[in-house]
Design brief:
- The protein is 59% helix and 9% strand.
- By secondary structure, it is an alpha/beta fold.
- A 5-stranded parallel β-sheet has the order 4-3-5-6-7, with helices on one face. A two-stranded parallel sheet has the order 1-2.
- Helix 17 links the parallel strand 6 and strand 7.
- The radius of gyration is 33 Å and the shape is elongated.
Length: 461
């Protein structure tokens, strides 16, 4: 069965949440040997997660939240269907007359208010208006799952966070909101049709504060789109004759026109708009899932990157000079999945004395030089501005702590570049970097808007 990229990332997050509570031992050496030679980091994370899930038999735990969510959704649909049916029965039973605008207010009033608030919430990105109490419930539920301490609680919290958080959650909650209102309206419409088929009703309307002309005008305005859809609606005379207190007896045609007006109003002003908003939320939710990404700047992923990717070893430079130097002058290079574009421009930032620049594999035409002061920074920026769509790789010494000065320099360098890479250099005889130092460099990359997948480590001679 084909699994989507979003579902793969949800599984990876569920494994991360589980490992945050207790370690899942895995034969990482044997697992690494099974990785394709040029697979990316996320592919290796997915294979590792599958390996851990199968080894520890976690499939039932991982699927529990999805099953509970489907059951909760079904219960909610049944409840709102009962509410819609009850609202209609309350408005039409106990009498042989139906107050037209009272029934429309019962079925459409809060629905229209909800749609208006939702549109305002989407426009202003106000979560509380987008989905009502659903966001509060989804924030409250993970905490309750954590307090229970069940074995599936971490996986359930991860599933809820991925499905009901961020942009995915915004459109998922919106879709559920429109779905519930649709069920309410459809149930109300269905029971109204049954009531009109089983009994004969007279239709009336009345007002205490408004004038009769206001109701006649309102009915006329509401009838315009209904005429376009093929519904027959009452005439001005028939509207006036339906006023509470009028002594005229309604004819069959009179009742039929009011029934058509009532049913058409529910479809045109309630069900159809909700259906369109539901479809829109569904499409936007699909797009949000496609753009859903994992936060590779988290210490968990930084640690796994060093284990699953040979980043602490040697990196490969793909944009080497067409006439490479002698093999004796070349540093030992092991291929890794990172492939920098051929047009990549290289610049180094305050490497220190223990690293020689430029590296042998960097061609002279792609070397922008080393930044050691303001003058050298100005020269590099001037060359970058001449090629606004350049790809730049910024080499820094991984041994030094990333400070604000380096962050400002990196930000300036990538401001005129179409794509940026941060390359952490360290000498071959240097010990592996501690996790805290790697995490600090990743935090700097995040602050500079350098993607986590474009932060690589290379050892040089």
């Amino acid at each position: 069965m084909t699994i989507s990229t979003f579902d793969k990332r949800v599984l990876i997050e569920q494994v991360r949440y589980i490992e945050a509570t207790h370690s899942l031992v895995s034969d990482s050496g044997g697992l690494s040997a099974e990785f394709p030679a040029h697979s990316d980091f996320e592919t290796r994370l997915w294979q590792r997660a599958n390996h851990l899930v199968d080894r520890h038999e976690l499939r039932p735990i991982l699927g529990r939240a999805a099953i509970l969510s489907r059951r909760a959704n079904l219960v909610a649909l049944l409840v709102v269907a009962l509410l819609g049916a009850s609202a209609t029965l309350f408005a039409v039973t106990g009498s042989s007359t139906i107050n037209v605008y009272w029934l429309l207010l019962v079925l459409l009033g809060f629905n229209l208010l909800s749609m208006l608030l939702w549109l305002v919430g989407i426009s202003l990105n106000l979560e509380g208006l987008i989905a009502g109490i659903l966001p509060k419930f989804t924030r409250w539920l993970p905490g309750q799952l954590a307090n229970k301490g069940t074995s599936s609680a971490p996986a359930d919290r991860a599933w809820l966070t991925c499905h009901f958080g961020g942009d995915v959650g915004k459109w998922q909650l919106s879709k559920l909101t429109h779905q519930l209102w649709l069920m309410y309206l459809l149930a109300g419409l269905g029971f109204l049709v049954l009531a009109l088929m089983a009994r004969q009703y007279d239709f009336v309307w009345g007002t205490t504060l408004l004038s009769d002309a206001a109701f006649v005008k309102l009915t006329d305005v509401l009838s315009m789109p209904l005429h376009a859809l093929g519904f027959t609606t009452p005439s001005v005379e028939q509207i006036q004759e339906t006023r509470i207190g009028a002594l005229n007896t309604l004819t069959a045609d009179h009742r039929y026109r009011w029934a058509q007006f009532l049913l058409g109003s529910l479809l045109c002003f309630g069900i159809v708009p909700r259906m369109l908003l539901w479809c829109w939320s569904l499409l936007m939710g699909i797009a949000a899932r496609r753009h859903f990404t994992l936060d590779y700047y988290l210490p968990y992923y930084i640690s796994l990157r060093q284990q699953l990717m040979p980043l602490a070893g040697h990196g490969q430079i793909v944009d080497a000079d067409a006439s490479p130097p002698d093999a004796a002058d070349m540093p030992t290079i092991n291929p890794v999945p990172h492939t920098l574009p051929v047009e990549t421009q290289w610049v180094s930032v305050e490497l220190g004395d223990n690293i020689t620049w430029p590296m042998a594999a960097v061609s002279a035409e792609n070397d922008l030089g080393q930044i050691i002061d303001r003058e050298s920074l100005a020269r590099v920026l001037q060359r970058l501005r001449a090629n606004e769509h350049s790809v730049i790789a910024i080499a820094v010494s991984a041994a030094r702590p990333p400070d604000r000065g380096v962050q400002r320099t990196v930000t300036n360098l990538i401001s005129n570049s179409a794509q940026s890479w941060l390359v952490l250099l360290h000498a071959q005889d240097q010990d592996s970097l501690p996790a805290t130092r790697m995490a600090a460099w990743y935090r700097l990359a995040k602050a500079c808007n350098v993607p986590a997948d474009q932060v690589i480590s290379m050892s040089v001679a």
